[in-house]
Amino acid sequence: MTTNNKGFIQGLWDFFCSLKLAISLLIGLAVTSIIGTVIPQVPNIPEEYISSLSQTKLQIYDKIGFFDMYHSWWYILLLYLFTVNLVACSMKRLPRVWKIVTEPNLVLDEGLEKSLSLTRDLKLKGGLAALKDGFTGFLAKEFAAPVVTEKDGEVHLYAQKNPWCRLGVYVVHLSIVIIFIGAIIGSLFGYKGWVQITEGTSESKVLGRNNKPIDLGFAVKLEKFSVAFYETGAPKEFKSILTVVENGKPVPGYVNIPIVVNDPLSYKGITFYQSSYGPAGEGGTFYFTVREKKGGAPIKITARQGESVQLPGGRTMHVTESTQDVRQFIPQMSGPAARIEVHSPGKQPDSFIVFRNFPKLDEERGGDLVFSYDGSDEKFYTGLQVAKDPGVWIVWFGCTLMVVGIIMAFFMSHKRIWVRISSSGRVVVAGSASKNQPAFQGAFDELTGKMEKL
Amino acid sequence: MSSSMLFNVTTIVYMVSMIVFFAFLATKNKQIGLVGSWAAYAGWIIQTIAIILRWKESYDMGVGHAPLSNLYESVVFFSWTIILIYGIIELKYKYRVVGAFVVPFALLGMAWAQLGLHSGIEPLVPALQSNWLLYHVITCFLGYAAFAVACGISIMYLIKERQEKADGDSPAGGIFSMFPAIRILDDLNYKAIMIGFPLLTLGIVTGAAWANYAWGTYWSWDPKETWSLIVWFVYAAFLHARITRGWVGRRAAILSIVGFAATIFCYLGVNLFLSGLHSYGK
Ligand code: HEM
After folding, report:
1. Quick check: B234 and A41 CB within 8 A?
2. What is the DSSP track for B48-112?
3. How far from the centroid of its chain's Cα atoms is residue A327's Cα?
4. What is the rounded CA–CA span in Å between residue A124 and residue A205?
5. Could you give the angle at the alpha carbon of B205 between the alpha carbons of B203 and B209, nearest 5°?
6. Mutation test of the interface with chain A: which of B188, B230, B235, choosing the one with the most A Cβ atoms within 10 A?
7. Among the four residues A394, B32, B170, B260, which has the most C-beta atoms within 10 Å?
8. B234 contacts chain A (CB < 8 A)
9. Best substitution site from B195, B205, B239, B248 to test ligand 1's pocket, by max atoms within 8 Å of Cβ?
10. What is the pLDDT of residues B83-124, one digit of tens each?
């Protein structure tokens, strides 16, 4: 029983230490990940897509978890297997590599010499002590300071460069585990939310997943919202001016902070991102100035959205639509504008646009009444994405580690040189590099060439 | 002189370079090979000037931004990075003939951009107004370009290997005798991916950093993100395959070609067939 058990555990360990498993898992993850890019994922599944599926298909997809596949049990299982494989494989190999780094072979004996492909035999004059000093100085100057070992009447020198880069691979593997840890912490202790704030008001709760309200512990006030457009009418900037309010008082340093897309506001680990906007829907009040073309004093008009207002001469008007920046509809114009409809007795209703930035323009329309638009107090709401993620710094640490590890693993090479000096004046030089051996061979030949002249 | 004229010149010069490279394959004349890579470099310099000019033109129009913001600009930049990576590998490892299998990718990009894509300079929408755009796009495309070069080398590998099998032990004749030995092609393939993999990793990390900065989530399984991860998995598999017995050579070459196909899908297919947050190609 015990041997069986041991065999099983050993087998399991070997299974998880296998590179073949790693390749299969990497390819398996690549292939299965495609599913979620083809099938819409929660919460962005269009109604039409659902109704286009047959009942059985819908049930099967739902059972397998295709609609939230990156959180399905089998995808998570793959990620766990991947992690166990990664850790086991690294643990098995790390001690050997650690030994190469920390306990290098200081003595160039025959066995080591045979195992190295780059060796050179030199015949030099001078005593053992002089040669020892000469080579030590030379290596320190041209390569790296050597460790000197005397053994059996011979002197052995060992010099190395970048020994730590051998650990690069393990740094990369560790970084993946760290990123996973950061992601798990984020999903356990953080949240994603959403809040809508109307100009002039504040909110202290946001809606989390499944519209569950989350208390922020402070409030955020929207002082003002504005939109700007390019001359082409394409949107240029969405801007919310926010103030953080805590215990009924504005927080110093967090008053009137503008946020735009790509420039959020963070307070106490909670970050607010500009995401959407719209009219607050209460129907603002619009202000106009009207005068008769034939002369007379201008009169001020106040109209609420949709409300009909009396004008001189039995006419009436109402506002049909309005915008804070007309450029998105009429690229040549800019600024706030309102479309109004004027009803004159016995005539067709007359519909036209007045622009706040062009108060004289309406004269050219040729109507009996000349309008100018003085603006509105229509309010906007801003839609903010809210996120708290205490794991994000761990993720960034992991990412940095990964990049460092990859650079160590790919672009650095552990270079080693051994020298054995005998009292007869025979000197054997050997070398090896963990990467790009041909390039190292060139450097080795150059070094040994110089050694000959020592 | 406008940037669009210079882009046309670039396209023609890449075409000349490709034709000369094919002539090099046919004639095995070293001088012709030299002309082929010179033409590629000349085209690249003209293209560099054109990209800078387009950058300036956008400022003259009052919507100044780096020319990396729509499909046209990204395809042009992709073709620029392909020649850049080719140049680095050629200068470092001295295998000129690789150009015959790499320049066509750059030419394809330029021809498509000039003939089939809308080339107007547009202002940046709010979502793209960030320096992260620059870091993210540059690292990703340099990575993609290295994979394109690796793919060209892998195609050469498969052709050469077949040729050698067909010819038995006799030295390979015909136009393929110019190719480096398959052992060298295998090594070059690995070296190109060693350039591409770190860059793709940086591209994914900068993308995640940007997403986190702009939206508050570094990873949301958006199709583009997921596909970049798929590409990353494939090349990670490639790197591990190389240190496993039995996976060097032919299988590695195939994996490299599959990786590049996934790369192209990540770049173009996702926008054409799937939907998501990334705006290229709309
Ligand atoms: C199941 C997961 C994984 C396992 C079991 C695994 C295992 C290994 C092993 C055993 C090595 C060889 C180390 C040596 O030379 O002694 C290695 C190398 C390496 N691994 Fe992984 N690995 C995994 C995932 C990854 C991933 C996702 C990456 C992504 C960055 C990665 C990056 C590397 C790199 C860059 C090397 C060096 C390759 C080279 O020198 O060409 N590994 N891995």
Report:
1. no
2. HHHHHHHHHHHHHTT----S-SSHHHHHHHHHHHHHHHHHHHHHHH--GGGHHHHHHHHHHHHHH
3. 33
4. 83
5. 115
6. B230
7. B260
8. yes
9. B239
10. 999 999 998 888 888 999 999 999 999 999 999 888 888 887
